């Protein structure tokens, strides 16, 4: 059951070569994802001279995020599990699919990757990064609920297509594609309200580089709560009898 399977792990995991390789995979995958995703937002701003996001522009941003996540999950799935998101790592930790120590290493790699991506974008484009923001008619609590729901959908998709033993035969294509599609679909809806983040690293990189942390807590609390709920529900209801190894997803693929 959830929480019973949670594993702290051993401190030696932090310095293990295998953990370093996984962290490096998460770093590069998150860097590439944020570079493409945030890059699409910057490109739209440049092409429209800073105009408000139109439906066509939102669709373009959503497609870019979905395709980028599809690729970055696919290229790191067999190394680190292709988390590319602290909320995914947290949701898998809740289900006992990764230890606490490895999860912390993943978080650091993901956050650093996002920051480096935004720094590179600022250098090569000369434009300031734009952290996710609430539209004028959305309350902070409304945005928080949106982030919980859409991140729940993302992490639930990860469990259903990549973690569940019944789905692992098709993980090389099905899981990354499904994960990319759910992110793109969620952005098409939530992008007009709060940016449709679902990923604390995706919010942290642009916020740090632009030094704009307005309502930033929403993009941590919402995704982490959504990931927790997804992990608990899937582990408790969908596959309660599974035995956990407390290893990253890739180790059991």
Automatic annotation (TrEMBL):
TM spans (from-to): 56-77, 83-101, 108-128, 140-159, 171-193, 217-237
Keyword Membrane on entry: yes
InterPro entries in alphabetical order: Aquaporin-like, Aquaporin_transptr, MIP, MIP_CS
A GO MF term: water channel activity
CDD domains: MIP (cd00333)
GO BP annotations listed: one-carbon compound transport
Record key words, sorted: Membrane, Repeat, Transmembrane, Transmembrane helix, Transport
Cellular component, GO, one term: endomembrane system
Topology class, membrane: Multi-pass membrane protein
Signal peptide: none
Keyword Zinc: no
Compartments reported by the entry: Endomembrane system
Principal localisation: membrane
Family classification: Belongs to the MIP/aquaporin (TC 1.A.8) family. TIP (TC 1.A.8.10) subfamily.
NCBIfam families: MIP
Designated name of the protein: Uncharacterized protein
């Amino acid at each position: 059951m959830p929480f019973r399977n949670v594993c702290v792990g051993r401190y030696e995991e932090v310095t293990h070569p295998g953990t370093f390789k996984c962290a490096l995979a998460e770093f590069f995958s998150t860097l590439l994802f944020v570079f493409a995703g945030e890059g699409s937002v910057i490109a739209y701003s440049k092409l429209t001279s800073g105009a408000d996001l139109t439906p066509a522009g939102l669709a373009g941003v959503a497609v870019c995020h979905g395709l980028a996540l599809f690729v970055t999950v696919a290229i790191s799935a067999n190394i680190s599990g292709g988390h590319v998101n602290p909320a995914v790592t947290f949701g898998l930790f809740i289900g006992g699919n990764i230890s606490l120590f490895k999860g912390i290493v993943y978080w650091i790699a993901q956050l650093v990757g996002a920051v480096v991506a935004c720094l590179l974008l600022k250098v090569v484009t000369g434009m300031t990064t734009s952290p996710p923001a609430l539209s004028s008619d959305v309350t902070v609590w409304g945005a928080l609920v949106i982030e919980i729901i859409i991140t729940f959908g993302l992490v639930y998709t990860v469990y259903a297509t990549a973690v569940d033993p019944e789905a692992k035969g098709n993980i090389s294509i099905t899981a990354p594609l499904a994960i990319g599609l759910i992110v793109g679909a969620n952005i098409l809806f939530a992008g007009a309200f709060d940016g449709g983040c679902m990923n604390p690293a995706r919010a942290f990189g642009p916020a740090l580089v632009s030094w704009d942390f307005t309502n930033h807590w929403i993009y941590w609390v919402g995704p982490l709560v959504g990931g927790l709920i997804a992990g608990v529900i899937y582990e408790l209801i969908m596959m309660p009898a599974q035995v956990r190894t407390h290893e990253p997803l890739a180790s059991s693929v």
